From TrEMBL:
Domain of life: Bacteria
Main location: membrane
InterPro entries named in the record: ABC3_permease_C, MacB_PCD, Macrolide_Exporter_MacB
Membrane-crossing residue ranges in chain numbering: 21-42, 296-321, 345-371, 383-403
Pfam families: FtsX, MacB_PCD
Stretches assigned to the MacB-like periplasmic core domain: 21-259
Lipid bilayer topology: Multi-pass membrane protein
Name of protein: ABC transporter permease
Species whose genome carries this gene: Corynebacterium stercoris
Keyword set, alphabetical order: Cell membrane, Membrane, Transmembrane, Transmembrane helix
Record family assignment: Belongs to the ABC-4 integral membrane protein family.
Domain ABC3 transporter permease C-terminal residue range list: 300-413
Compartments in which it is found: Cell membrane
Amino acid sequence: MDPREALRLAAQSLRANKMRSVLTLLGVIIGIASVISIMSLGKAMQQQVLADFEQFGLNDVNVQVQGRQPVDGTETLYAFDDVPDSALITPDMADELEAYLGGKVQGIALEGGSATARITRGLNEGRATVSFVNDDYVAVQRLPMTAGRLLNDDDITGDRSVAVISPEVVERYFNGDPESAIGATLDVDVEGRFASLQVVGAYGRAEATSVLATTWEEAMLYVPYTAKPKLSAEPLQGFRTLQIRAASKDLTDQVAADAATWAERAYAEDPDYTAKVLDTKRELDQVNQTMATMSLVVSAIGAISLLVGGIGVMNIMLVSVTERTREIGVRIALGATRRAVRMQFVAEAMMICLLGGVLGILLGTAIGMAGTSALGTMVLPPLGAVVISLAFSLAIGLFFGIYPANRAARMNPIEALRHE
């Protein structure tokens, strides 16, 4: 039988039983739609999480002072907190690294510790965390400025008593008006050490683009690290970590390699400690792999409904074969081969599943786009998921259509003609 003739007869049969065909299609449509919508939502959430990680610094190059690994491969004897002051990265070393990296970096963030302080302005009193940082720190954290300016190099070298404050500090001490905070002073008390800090900038909350990412809501004051001796009993000797932001994502690997070269050279004469570039890309790859696996597992669960739909297709094809027993007998008696009869019913089952697959893809795309739009990142379903869904629906039609088709092809034409 000509395949086109088989498709024509299949379409004719579907039109003759519209309601039954629609009900049969529903199982396939729901299965395909669930897979497509889940894959779309998974893709959108993956993009959002990656964007959040990039915003919050996972793609940055982080350098950390650690104890050297013994030559024999045993565990290091030096914990991160046990790094002595003499092994820390000094401001001069950080300047040397920034000059070495040149235009490949946006900045190098340094934090020389933090302290909990009592903050007073007039009769208003509260507590906040004072963080001792360099001029690049706030910029590298990508905190959006709402008023004033960031810390600058003059603040650091001039040992100025200035601060950039968080939204919580603005809300508590300046009635939520960041403009009114600029130029004002805050009295800071850290365990009996007092200082008056002039507010030069205020930042807002960095908005997370995904529901999985969170932002810290804490009263913070970022002050130059050179101000630490005024407010802390511990003098600043250096920094345990550096956070380096590349000028572009394409330069991240090169910056990491250059930073590793610098660290090896800077600590070449230290037998116990070194500075190591942390591999955050491995963590990012693990997140990607985990989310992709979760999408596949949930999609596989959704695909179970396709099997249910396939069983429905087989059931309806068996009913169709029973109803059309006399027709099958007439065709065989007139010379139709068993192969032609088999092709007719297989084509009908595959047409049902193909049509259900196309409608399911359209429905799943609509649901996925609506869901991803609600998440804030509207995406189209992955092309691979669409192709696999169509192929799977055709495979379902072929698998569950073979048995009814074989049953029709094996009919005895005499008994079929006598069937009422």
